[in-house]
Design goal:
The protein is built from eight helices and five strands. It has 159 residues and is of the alpha/beta class. Strands 3-2-1-4-5 form a five-stranded parallel beta sheet, sandwiched between helices. The longest helix is centred in the last third of the chain and has 16 residues, at 141-156. The chain is globular.
């Protein structure tokens, strides 16, 4: 029997997704608690999904919040501590193996998602992750909420 791919595994386990900085920022800065970005973070906080991000993404969001919305920074840091597993950025050797699969500035995010076996990647910049990698589905937050909802329904047997 062949080993399961990450996309096959997601149908039998809690969904594991990687969250890009733009989605984290939108979730932290959104005045709407029902936005897709915020909803993904809340699902992670409730442990319905496993959400992963990288040091690079956290640093970017903290810098942008500090510049644009400094009062939101403490709430963001609390949300991160409650809902995300933050992993180290890939080293240059890891990046070299996947060169050309995403825009150079976004390649570390894709490689970190691959390394952490995240079959889903949430971003508003889907085109930055082209041509991408077959093991990672890159989706906008709204599309990802729908996918997670479907996967959770399959886990509970309520298709």
């Amino acid at each position: 029997m062949e080993p399961e791919t990450p996309l096959e595994r997601e149908s039998t386990t809690k969904p594991r997704l990687f969250i890009d900085a733009d989605v984290l920022f939108a979730g932290a800065a959104s005045p709407n608690e029902h936005s897709a970005s915020n909803l993904l973070l809340r699902m992670a906080e409730l442990t319905l999904i496993e959400a992963v991000t990288s040091t690079q993404a956290i640093t970017e969001v903290e810098r942008n919040l500090q510049d644009k919305m400094p009062k939101a920074l403490p709430a963001f840091q609390l949300l991160v501590s409650r809902s995300l597993r933050v992993v180290a950025d890939p080293d240059p050797a890891e990046l070299a193996e996947y060169a050309g699969l995403a825009n150079p500035e976004d390649l570390p995010i894709l490689v970190a998602a691959l390394r952490e076996e995240c079959s889903l990647l949430a971003t508003f910049n889907v085109r930055h992750y082209q041509p991408g990698h077959p093991s990672v589905a890159v989706l906008k937050p709204g599309d990802l909420v729908l996918r997670v909802r479907y996967l959770l329904a399959r886990l509970s047997g309520k298709e």
